[in-house]
Amino acid sequence: MIPEIETKSATEIKALQEAKLKVALEYLSENSPFYKRHFETHQISIAEIQTLEDLRKIPVTTKDDLQQFNNDFICVPKSKIIDYVTTSGTLGDPVTFALTDADLERLAYNEAISFACAGVTSDDVLQLMTTIDRRFMAGLAYFLGVRKLGAGIIRVGAGIPELQWDSILKFKPTYLIVVPSFLLKMIEYAEQHHLDLNTCGVKGAICIGEAFRNDDFTLNTLGKKITEHWQIELFSTYASTEMSTAFTECEAQQGGHLHPELIIAELLDDNDQPVKEGSIGELTITTLGIEAMPLLRFKTGDMMKAHYMPCPCGRTTMRLGPIAGRKKQMVKYKGTTLYPPAMENVLNHFNQLECFVIEISHNAIGTDEILIKIASNNPSEVLLSQIKDRFRAKLRVTPKIEWCDKTVVDALRFPKLSRKPLLVIDKRK
Length: 429
What we know:
The protein is an alpha/beta fold. The chain has helices at residues 10-31, 33-41, 63-68, 101-117, 137-149, 161-171, 180-192, 221-229, 340-347, 381-395, 406-413, and strands at 81-86, 96-100, 125-128, 152-155, 175-178, 204-207, 233-240, 245-249, 256-257, 263-268, 281-287, 298-304, 306-307, 319-320, 325-326, 331-333, 336-338, 353-362, 368-376, 400-403, 424-426. The strands form five sheets. It has a nine-stranded mixed sheet with strand order 4-3-5-6-7-8-9-14-13, with helices on both faces. Helix 6 (161-171) packs across helix 7 and helix 7 (180-192) packs parallel to helix 8 (221-229). The chain starts with 9 loop residues before the first helix and ends with a strand.
């Protein structure tokens, strides 16, 4: 199930996107209160936007815009809205997104071709190990996509290894949709209860929310710890509520593929200019084919690299590498620039750690401070020294680290109304 456009030449893909861009601009100029005002304020004539390069004439849209003018982004009457979701609020106040029936159909199509990208077929059964409620788009998107693909789905929800294993043994899913670190808990439960991981029928995991690859697509510490015990294929899928579109790895596992009929992607620097090929930039997206809340040149806050060489799978589309970090969570610490995923990778090396949370704050003179709260069944000065040594070796700096009771760390990781665990708490203003 590879859309034909994904195997076309770069010229043909660009032509398709430019045609869809013109339709999107006309739609926004007629229906979006925010973008009508945006075009007038910046004296933008949409007739002059003919190419993807012309997009640079339009100032970007930010998360602050969405938070401040949320309702002004809605392009349809309330009677056409079928579903309401909210963003997670990781980098600020949650934003409401509305979806029409056509938007839900687009969401289903997006996930269907994304799952197919990872090799899932109508013969497979997928176990959904994320929430489908709490105004969470992802769980709903996965359900709709699997249904569109014609595969089977088991809606178990997040957590509870015992229930997850009961479903695996009872229904024999072939793929799991899961936060990768939770697979470690699944492995631990299986070992404690003498379950054979490699004869249970699961052949792959579609992983969300956490990086398990390095920048060169090799497995990082988390990825290695999973596959050392459980011989399954790991596929990364990256998306956000704002995009309503996923970038999912194929069997080559060399980055998440762009769906050019659904989204235009740019990687921009701090001055909103395209970064050089091979450089890290902030993913900035223009959604195509959305009715209720389309976005134009929206800066996602996610920092990553793009890859443009044709993929062995036959697709010629741009691919996105692992997220280096969130722009707002970048830390300047003792002369070194850090993103939380790099710190998480160091901590994931230690099996003795039960859980951790990274707190970022400003000190009395206004510079960044890092405090990592960790929990272990067997805390010791030797282990603490080993953790600090690994930070120095891998990141050249050692943040402040303190032992905490597991209940304290879990209370920070799972705040009230949370839909997913928080590994980073940013206290900076």
